[in-house]
Amino acid sequence: MPSTQDWINAPLAVVEEMFAASQNNSNSGWETKAVEFFQDQLKERDTHTLVPSLNDVPLHYLKPNSLVKFRCLIQDMFDPEFYMGVYETVAPSTKTKMLRCGKYKDVTECGVDFNSRNTVTAERQTFYCVPIPGENPWVKERYAGSSQARVVPSTSYAPSRQKRSYEEDDDMDTQPQKQREPHAGPHSPSEHHGNGDCKRQETEAPSSQTASASHLDLNFPLPGEKGPSCLVKVYEDWDRFKLNDTLEVYGILSVSPALSALADEKDASSSLLDPAESMETAEEQRVHSPPASLVPRLHMLHAKPLPHNNPLLPSAALEDNSAFLSSTLSEMASVREEILSYFTHVLLGDALAAEYLILHLISNVYSRRDVLPLGKFTLNLSGCPTVASYTERFYQIIQQLVPSSHYLAMSLQNMNQMRLVPKKDYVANRLVSGALQLARNTSLFLDETQLEQGQLDTTGVRNVTALGNLISWQKVDYDFNYHQMEFPCNINVLIASEGRSLLPSDCQIHLQPQVAPSHLEESLSSIHMHLQASSQLNKFRIYLSMARLLDYSISDEVTKSVEDDFVDMRKDDPQSISAEDLHRMLVVARLLSLSLGQTSLSRDSWLRAKHIEMLRRSRMEQHKCVNGNEP
Amino acid sequence: MSSPTSTPGGRKRGRNTNPPTPSSEDPTSPPSQRRRGQDSSTGDLMPMPTSPATDMLSPAAPQDTSLFSSPRPSVQPNEVDMSSPLMYGTPSSRVEGTPRSGVRGTPARQRPDLGSVRKAPQVDLHSEPPSTDGAVASEPNAGQRLVIWGTDVNVGTCKEKFQRFLQRFTDPNSTEDENAGLDLNEPLYMQKLEEISVVGDPVLNVNCWHVQSFDAELYRQLICYPQEVIPTFDMAVNELFFERFPDSILEYQIQVRPYNALKTRNMRSLNPEDIDQLITISGMVIRTSQLIPEMQEGFFQCQVCAYSTRVEVDRGRIAEPAVCRNCNNTHSLALVHNRSVFSDKQMIKVQESPEDMPAGQTPHTTVVYAHNDLVDKVQPGDRVNITGIYRAVPMRVNPRQNNVKSVYKTHIDAIHFRKTDEKRLHGLDEEAEQKLFTEDRVQTLKELAAKPDVYERLSSALAPSIYEHEDIKKGILLQLFGGTRKDFSQTGRGNFRAEVNILLCGDPGTSKSQLLQYVYNLVPRGQYTSGKGSSAVGLTAYVMKDPETRQLVLQTGALVLSDNGICCIDEFDKMSDNTRSVLHEVMEQQTLSIAKAGIICQLNARTAVLAAANPVESQWNPKKTTIENIQLPHTLLSRFDLIFLMLDPQDEAYDRRLAHHLVSLYYQSEEQMEEEFLDMAVLKDYIAYARTYISPRLSEEASQALIEAYVDMRKIGSGRGMVSAYPRQLESLIRLAEAHAKVRFSEKVESIDVEEAKRLHREALKQSATDPRTGFVDISILTTGMSATARKRKEEVAQALKKLIQAKGKTPAMKYQQLLDDLRGQSETAITKELFDEALRALADEDYLTVTGKTVRLLA
After folding, report:
1. Which of B656, B666, B677 to mutate to test the interface with A (most CBs of A within 10 A)?
2. What is the pTM (predicted TM-score) of this model?
3. B397 to A258: CB separation less than 8 angstroms, yes or no
4. Is the ipTM of this complex over 0.85?
5. What CDD domains has UniProt attached to this entry (chain B) (predicted)?
């Protein structure tokens, strides 16, 4: 059995060993064995933390052809490609033939015998993956902090340098991500060289990276994102992956410079020689074979779908981790109190709005009935003060609590210019991403207070329609030029507005600040000071992610009483409650139970849900009256 | 070891009496390298040797080979049996004509589609002894089992089989439009050959399905070794053709284009096993490249002695001759572009059609190369079935490195295109576009259809998340199936609308939009628009400049795009009048006339409209008629077959069921729900199957029932002097009855279908056309926008007013308010101001009086 270091540092050797062993007996199924081997290795306790992650280790620190992991979202799926699974090489000097394995590799050895009968053509699929869009800094830090792989030397061949890497990596860990953030993405690696060793061989690489990055769009869904994107080659049942899935991919890193098809010197000469290659447009080549230094290739050995992206929660399924589950469940009610009082403070003393905010943050589309998504809970928080950039502060607080989020200012300019819906670019043959290509359970914060008077142009109208569709049906229609394709999504949309939002929402609540207008400024500025201790923050983070993952059911008796309630309410005043209201109340009751850590609806929770709904409605009535009296 | 060319098998049908060529003559040309090299221009340029004596001067003389850096097949032309398939198309067959009389004078044309890029290994037959399975010309085997290297194709047998196929194959049950006008009981392809001789278009399209039903073995060979078999077919067909029609003149020899390979594949299921096989895939063209001239043959001229030579392209390369054979100077030869031979080539990108795609994945694309006359046959946006050979070529990372990327580039060399959405020439419109159902599937569907409650089952499977509204769901179900399309254009009536239009109106929040969304997701050609957001152009068509070609192109809107589908229009009432007016034509004539920017045309828009409208006062006012509630022009309303009201019923039992339904929606797991209802996919297939294959006709009994129903409907109103049905209602009834028969998979409309149609129609009418004043169903509400009682009332008021004025005697002018008060005082029923105004207007129309401002003047 190979040692730990072996399978992490030289996974290809493991694969090749198995391949060689299989040559003697055919039908040995070495391929499944190889995959199983790595899966078993990774299953073992904490071994996965030993594997360096592309997310937090700069690419040039990683050893080529070593095992790495990458937390990512499938942004685009390219066409499947055929490769030489097994091929034969002829040594030029000795003329000896040798069978080689082409799996998990991009480039063949020298001297391939194309006419060999032993060549096996196999198929693999390529996914274009980007880091999870909108992932918040605390998640990144936490993941990087828990990794035990930081001691991985950048290159294996000079032990003296290993020491340097230790230092640097430690350095990096002590510097929170935030410090690096103000700089533009591609610059950060070179910055490390500044305090590192200038004589390093790799110094050239980052500088060329920055140069080439300028003309290469890495196609991140959100503007201002950074991090590596990756071409992931998938060898086994790629049908189970869907666009926008979030995965943790374990694979073999390949950064062979030979892959950069975009070498400038070869356009005129090669096109003459190889007519097949010149058929691709320059854009297409640029997109499909970007320089490996910028977009590394990752040959997938194992992929773990991420049901959540909260590093504080155990990565295994909740059912398997009953100890953790029971301990958090018992705490949930008390944490809920704390978080409620915190939100009440943030929402200027409005406890009801704070209650609804909790419900919104733990909402989740858990099922779809034909076209109807169930469980979504879009909240429109109207009446937000426009002073002292309240909404931005509010967003910063949410950012601290949820794993991924995005702030979208609905300014006229943004709406008219931003690309929200992904669009297929047929020239480059790729899906150009848009801001609505988000991973599941991302919090999308729409700031409508930024909206000013003006006219929406065609793009603007289309963008607003896309947002409306997202909210009502939890789907985004991707633009494929000749037709549209519908992709279901699961995004929590929070709309902050002054009056009622122009977008649809499941629930609108008007903020009623409990502070006098004269003190408003003051208390607004105090909000930020109130940031909690990190242990408390972590509690909140766990709470919000946990509540979303819980199961939920309604017992028959409660069903009965809910039905009775509905009939009674209708009897009193049919206008007061419609089917839609019942829909909403059922969602509220569900979320309320979950927020208390209860996995089934109790009579109490139902009454409580009814109560807060009633409070909210009366507040809306009241607000309507106030507005009605105004001239 | 002998070259295949000399074997008896190849010589069998040859008329050339030359002795067999010595085996050593063609050492470097493996059979797999055959290529059609014939080109007319070369024949003109270079007089061909007529006897072996001139061979030494011929450029194709054997000793030349040594001077070329690449193996160059060279065979002395006249000594070779030209009819041998194995010589077929080698570069040296550049002979003007063949010894045989018929084919003489008709040059063959290169088929780059079969061999422009080859992956097949080139094996030197001398260095590598043929392995047993390689089955190279096996001389010991009595010379009869000659097969092409690497395959099991025996050229002779294959040719014979194909000729037999051409001569004998008939398909009496053919429904293909290609065969329209042919005598189906005569051999099909012989008639096509005759057509070729008349038309002079030397392309023979062969349906692979025919080949398979005729000779499965031949079909297998065609699929597995298209590159070898198709040239053999070509030869066979040419021989046959020139035997039959010795005098006909063709531009070049006939080329066989097989299509509809049964192994039709989804682009997604292509895998390495398909490489170099004949495949048919369907997809949508997304991009076409410019025309690429691809060199087939390079023309080199020596700079020193002006001696010229030609080199064929070999696997995408031209081997430049290093030494001039005439003057022995090295590196003196230069390429002369003008005299080289090029063929047309085009790169086409094809994308999976949206229907074939699994959810949550992005569509795949494939590169297709079209050659010669297939270039520019398709445009971006076309849906095509492509038959071609799947190829894979290894990629080189850097031309100067010997290292290769371990990836192949794949593409398809197109042999045949068939557009699927093209208006095919002979009737049989797109509904015949076959959605292939497997036997099992058809069986399940038929079983389902045989159930007595299939209608109820299907309607409850429709949008299960929406509660109750059974009749509305049934109506929509019938809309999904549609009536039978009838063509009365001969009698001047034009097409008869087969699509059922439905309008849903009702209180907001009664899940109308959800129903629309569901339907939109269910039908393959559905379009969803909102009346608020769509303009007339968005619905019809607009002209825009194509960014690539800079030509004006017609971009079709939602109505045209949903041809043969359903166009769902939400917020129908919020649509501007301008936009709504385009619907008039679409909803009855099913066409769309456009006159824009110099483009005048009529497009088909055979779409069913499913619209949803909200009442003007946001809440439905039961005291008003439908027209008054939704404020839509009655001209439009009468075009809807069914108008349903979706109202909140407000009764306790209903509430209870609704609550139960909703609550269970929230806690049942997915599996539980699936058990309860029919799968959406089954429903989809069921509808598609019925729409494609079932076209019910009225039975005698049913037509009687329809007549009765219509007469009854007319009678209802006649008692009160009202008309309660118009021919349009009869048409609706027929459509609904037909749709119901389709639901049952019945080819005949029977009386139960009529009964259901009547019931549904009555239900809808009861809801929408009930006069709130009288409580009677009154169709004139929908057809004239006003109920008969209302009209009667108007007349009465006008008469009363006239009497009042006459009673006042000779007063030329009166105060408006005064008159109104007087009338109110006189009349026993309440007179509203509107009613009064209307009465005044009616009298003004009679030229009895005029109204100017606040005074009413009598006209003399």
Report:
1. B666
2. 0.71
3. yes
4. no
5. MCM4 (cd17755)
